[in-house]
């Protein structure tokens, strides 16, 4: 059983109207009070964080820190370690979580993979959990959250642990593109890649054969054009990625009236197979009319925040009691961490993606493919598979040249490794065997 967390330096309760916090945090940095007056974690508080108490984790998984990882003190969970410190005779598997998740999201897969002979490591990525050294300020160092630096984080952790290569890197949700870029950029280190819930369509393309064409303005299929079209629908809408890029998004979730625990309960519920309205299917195009078919947690009502969006789908007490894949004791791990850190660290990833500021450096790799063995795993009830029209098909037909399997798991939504851990463990172990160096077909 998971017990309450210990070792967390929590800010003292401040009994102030949460709407005041939301207003305060929406102001530019120069107009704001110091972070400690706003209930945000200060650098002093962050540096006082301890590893998880062992009673908070399944037996066989431990919590530890690794220093000097690209400017971070990285917190990670590991399984399949040797108590004497020598684990490098066991091949390594690196697990990368998404949003709003933690290393803890892999707790159900780590032991089965470790029992198959692997050293399994799962970090709290930059911006998350007990990893420190990142900038939590909206107006801070955004560039440190760009994709190539996240790859550098993963590479630095693997190297610090004494590995020249890993058997596989596995990424879920926003961890999926990080894993994909790891395999694309350093296939000598990341020998195989498993992508979960978020297909990878390849690096952004460079404009091709345009030298004799007239300059073109934005089109209806460009991000700006689609956002305008969504707002102009009869039921005005907005895309969650661009909402997550706004200054208000963190405060909306962090200081929501229902509290972080209830917010996360509703958020995880409505993106899972437990929410029966999840009946995903491919979309025809990146257009407002097609994107509007996505559920509200992906394409939101224009004038609502995410906290209000998911509050409408809060499960009943009976549904919560029946939720075996995420009981309240385990959800409390997430809510305690996010109550301390807020969401801005993870939201910076979305800002890097939507701003276009870092697209040019990714276009350097335009046309490059993932040639390492790969597989894709997602829940059959996961809209994430289809939220970017065409990506699921591009991943299989072009971006990944050695795709060994593409699996949509029954009884799972977006949180596939938590909702159906036995089947996902089986699929991953099958993939690790198929991609093992020297294995004969």
Number of domains: 2
* CATH structural fold name of the largest domain: Rossmann fold
Helix content: 25-40%
CATH homologous superfamily label of the largest domain: Alpha/Beta hydrolase fold, catalytic domain
Question: For the terminal residues, how far apart are their CA atoms?
Answer: 42 Å
Identify the CATH class of the largest domain: Alpha Beta
SSE ordering: HHEEEHEHEHEHEHHHHEHHHHHEHEHH
Identify the CATH architecture of the largest domain.
3-Layer(aba) Sandwich
Q: Total number of helical segments?
A: 18
Low-confidence stretches: 1-46
What percentage of amino acids are in beta strands?
A: 5-15%
Shape: globular
User: Overall mean pLDDT score?
Assistant: 89
Give the strand tally.
10
Query: How many whole angstroms does the radius of gyration measure?
Result: 21 Å
């Amino acid at each position: 059983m998971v017990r309450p967390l210990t070792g967390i330096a929590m800010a003292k309760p401040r009994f102030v109207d949460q709407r005041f916090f939301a207003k305060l945090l929406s102001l530019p940095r120069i107009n704001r009070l110091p972070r400690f007056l706003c209930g945000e974690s200060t650098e002093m508080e962050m540096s006082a964080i301890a590893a998880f108490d062992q009673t908070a984790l399944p037996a066989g998984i431990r919590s530890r820190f690794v220093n000097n990882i690209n400017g971070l003190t990285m917190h990670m969970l590991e399984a399949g370690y040797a108590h004497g410190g020598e684990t490098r005779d066991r091949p390594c598997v690196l697990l990368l979580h998404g949003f709003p998740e933690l290393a803890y999201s892999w707790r159900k897969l780590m032991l089965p993979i470790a029992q198959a002979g692997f050293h399994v490591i799962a970090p709290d990525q930059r911006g998350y959990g007990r990893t420190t050294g990142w900038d939590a300020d909206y107006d801070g160092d955004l560039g440190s959250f760009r994709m190539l630096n996240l790859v550098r984080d993963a590479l630095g952790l693997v190297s610090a642990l004494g590995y020249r290569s890993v058997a596989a890197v596995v990424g879920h949700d926003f961890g999926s593109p990080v894993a994909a870029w790891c395999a694309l950029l350093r296939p000598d280190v990341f020998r195989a890649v498993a992508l979960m819930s978020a297909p990878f369509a390849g690096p952004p393309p460079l404009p091709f054969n345009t030298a004799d064409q007239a300059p073109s303005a934005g089109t209806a299929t460009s991000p700006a054009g689609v956002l305008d079209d969504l707002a102009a629908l009869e039921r005005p809408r907005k895309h969650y990625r661009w909402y997550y890029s706004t200054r208000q998004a963190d405060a909306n979730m962090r200081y929501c009236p229902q509290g972080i625990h209830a917010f996360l309960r509703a958020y995880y519920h409505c993106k899972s197979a437990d929410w029966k309205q999840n009946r995903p299917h491919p979309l025809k195009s990146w257009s407002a009319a097609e994107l509007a078919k996505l559920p509200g947690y992906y394409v939101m009502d224009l004038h609502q925040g995410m906290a209000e969006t998911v509050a409408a789908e809060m499960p009943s007490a009976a549904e919560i009691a029946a939720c075996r894949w995420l009981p309240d004791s385990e959800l409390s791990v997430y809510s305690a961490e996010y109550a301390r850190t807020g969401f801005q660290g993870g939201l910076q990833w979305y800002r890097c993606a939507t701003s276009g500021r870092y697209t040019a450096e990714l276009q350097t790799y335009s046309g490059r493919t993932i040639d390492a063995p790969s597989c894709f795993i997602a829940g059959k009830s996961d809209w994430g598979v289809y939220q970017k029209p065409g990506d699921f098909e591009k991943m299989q037909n072009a971006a990944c040249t050695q795709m060994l399997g593409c699996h949509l798991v029954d009884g799972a939504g977006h949180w596939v490794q938590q909702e159906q851990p036995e089947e996902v463990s089986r699929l991953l172990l099958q993939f690790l065997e198929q991609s093992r160096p020297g294995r004969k077909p």
